[in-house]
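Two entries, shown back to back:
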Amino acid sequence: MQSFELTDMALDTIASFASLGRVKLGEMPDLIAKMHEHPSDAARFYMGLFQLFTITGNNDFAQSMQARALALNTIYRVEGSSQPSIRLLAFMVAGTITDNTPLDYLIENSDIQLDVVYLVPGEPLPDLLPEHDVAIIAFGESDKDLSSLEMMKAIVDDWPRPILNRPQRVLFCARDKLYALIRDIPDLLIMPTLRVDRASLENITVANATISAVLGGGTYPITVRPLVSHGGKGLSKIENVMELQNYLANAPESEFFVSFFSEYRSVDGYYRKVRIALIDGVPYVCHLAIGEHWIVHYQTANMADSIEKREEEARFMREFDTDFARRHQVALSTLAERLGLDYVVIDCAETIAGELLIFEIDNRGWIHATDDINVFGYKQAVMNKAFAAFRAMLVKAMHAC
């Protein structure tokens, strides 16, 4: 068993994604020039380029810069409070911004110091790690990170500080495992989900049998998406075998999640998706996206262009605790108990019949307060409530040991 020493460390400081996200595109060259002022600090320079080019969408170059940074150093401190009251250590993995919990958005402008340790496949953790008050597993259950989860599973029970989002619980966020875990919760609806390889779907006979098994003898429509899929990328609703074949002809992946499609359109013709953060088992509303398409994302729902949508979201947020959360109190509390995760994000909706329809649950979910305050002024207090709950959870963990 590997042993670790915790000590106060002078760490390479990197910017937060939250602050970089507010930088205008025209200001990027000045930021890059500023990084060049300290070329000897190669690890921080490469990590800065990773962050900048992630923000601008050049993921391939960003990943190459991250690899260079991690070859030099795997421990970083995110810019923040100079006089922290809470020291949070996050275990992360190499990858895109969606591979890890975006913690810097949760702790922005707080008294929480965030240090990050990146796990590198095939390599042990450093023997010397930053002193901290609380640690958190901040990466997910994707196939590429399973070995890192297994490594953490072997050491968390003997960790010298409280540790949140234990790796064995993170595994339940996988779409097929999640269905098996929560499918029988009263007044909660989650569609049967199966992990299927390409060969099975390309064989029409096997595909029909597979789909029938998923749907319990049901029929189309279904949804198909690659195993690693975020923001609706690669997600499609399939109405028949021909559409399935066309989908596969344009999808390079070798494995997919297949699920039944549940119609959740409201009586006014709009689709509504709610994002909730479960923090220490308590639900906090983070947004209500209202759109015309069944794939509803906040960025594509044109919320900023519709005062009617924003007024509805503001009202929904004001009344969340006494309305939506109260109606689904039993389902949400049972869900939180079964998951056993300290921080996790739920994307869900409400069916016409009044059930809580679960789309996705992910410990890497993004909640933030970066929307334009002049347009979304009502969101600041709501998000600050969630951020305060996150801080309170850390304090509770600190005092529990």
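entry 2 starts here
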Amino acid sequence: MSFFPCSCPLSCNKTRSECQKKSTHHQSEPSTSVSLLSQPSLPLVPSLSSPLQSSTVEHQCLATLTDHSSYVSSLALSRKSLFTGSSNGEIRVWPREQPFSSTGNIVGAGSGGVKSLVILGDRLISAHQDHKIRVWKIIDDSNKYKCVATLPTMNDRFTSLFSQKSYVEVRRHKKSTWVHHVDAVSSLALSQDGSLLYSASWDRSFKIWRASDFKCLESIEKAHDDAINAIVVSRDGFCYTGSGDKTIKVWIKKDKSHSLVATLKKHLSAVNALAVSEDGKVLYSGACDRSILVWERLSNGDGDDDELHMTVVGALRGHTKAIMCLAVASDLVLSGSADKSLRVWRRGLLEKDGYSCLAVLEGHTKPVKCLAVSVSGSGSDSNSDYSCMVYSGSLDLSVKVWNLRVSTV
């Protein structure tokens, strides 16, 4: 029996076993009753929010996609489509062209809620509450999809079944083969070149899979003391994991395995979301303590990763409840919260300018659970104007489509 704290999206302060007595899939009916009085104090780090705005943003909600029968838990974007995953295991695909369709075609359904989605070429990869990872591929021009693989693959399962060395202790007096996740797969990430797939789980482990044939290459067991809620990989290969144990860990691949190079301890409650800047130098972390911490990666300058460390430079504050999701696009940071709102942040031209909250997007009637964003125009230059499309999924069973136009004053 597991006695780890529950990893419900709004931190219900029960043990996982207590929460599971109420529901087999204990995120199917998330509580929205978290009050400010029950939340931890904000971390003792300086605020980076600046009242001086060097930018302005015009925003408009273009559409609300409501054809979901349960809450929207994950989003992914391809060049032409938006994919949405729901807590009942259903995956839908929506064309991104305007006017937006009010009905999304069903890609497929697993037996557990969809926790994360990523796009790899012509394949869609989904992580599920039932401990599995599924690979979907379009089978013809009619926009129909087929599940072409379930991870771990049959070959991985068979080869590990008969070897005693393949079994690891996952709980007290319980063992499983190392290629299996034994709790919900909470997050997926891809390496910069798309050759590796990373999966994180509430079983406290994360695994690395070869994308060409989905063979499990490595499993980091007991990577954290509690459930892992988020995993991201920077363009230069650093892997970050955020956990219910309030920490973020930094990993780097050395030879054929990943090694821990830093443990970040500033949050006062479970870490729910991570995002990394496009140049890989800045990490953003969101937690139930209502703060978004900004970390900068430092090294000794001679390429020795053992000397790498991260320092927290401050926090983005403004949300009144738990941070549920984060996304980075160009020089923007977007955050979704249990307070039902999204916030759009932009870093100033000078380091002393900090970050400005350019907009608060309101319209959802329940917590915002997931985000996806795409930029059009010259968003890489902080002196240029550009626009982006933002997609937000919520516990109110809807996805909202927002258009942002960012201008430099």
